[in-house]
Write a structure and sequence with these properties.
InterPro entries: MoaB, MoaB/Mog-like_dom_sf, MoaB/Mog_dom. A six-stranded mixed β-sheet has the order 2-1-3-6-5-4, with helices on both faces. The chain is of the alpha/beta class.
């Protein structure tokens, strides 16, 4: 990778946990995301736990984008009747980063086998800012952050900002 190709962009992150069964005290995966980001010197400027509600997810994502240029939504990506994170975020993306979901599922397959088929992880851009929707398990958030998001966020934002 050509280091001159990637701009030295200030990155501010937002973490949104989508769950009807968690709150800020019991949000283990959200806390894991925050710790991984902070350990990578990526400050978290916004954090909320919200229920699986399409309008609420869109509203809080837009609120997070006021202060963050990297938004990570965790949870609500499954196939149950109340999982709606993907349905909330996909229509408001300016551009979809297809490779994010593809790479997430490939890496998941290496770890959990064909169960990765159920993953609806999505990445994209809204107003030149990166947005990622990932499953809420601790393993999923750890892999997504360590193997994909943290290594590529500066590269993504360099291109999204042009």
């Amino acid at each position: 990778m050509d280091p001159t190709h990637i701009e030295d962009i200030i990155i501010n992150c937002a973490v949104i946990t989508v769950s009807t069964s968690r709150d800020e005290n019991s949000d283990i995966s959200g806390k894991k995301i925050i710790k991984l980001l902070e350990n990578a010197n990526l400050p978290v400027v916004f954090y909320k736990v919200i229920p699986d509600d399409l309008e609420k997810i869109q509203l809080v994502c837009k609120e997070a984008l006021l202060s963050a240029n990297c938004v990570i939504l965790s949870g609500g990506t499954g196939l149950t009747h109340d999982d709606c994170t993907i349905e909330a975020i996909s229509p408001i993306l300016d551009k979809k980063i297809d490779g994010f979901g593809e790479l997430f599922r490939l890496k998941s397959y290496e770890d959990i086998g064909t169960r990765a088929l159920l993953s609806r992880a999505v990445g994209g851009v809204i107003d030149k800012k990166a947005v990622f929707c990932i499953p809420g398990s601790t393993g999923a958030v750890t892999m997504a952050l360590k193997d994909i998001i943290i290594p590529e966020i500066r590269h993504i934002l360099t291109h999204a900002g042009k």
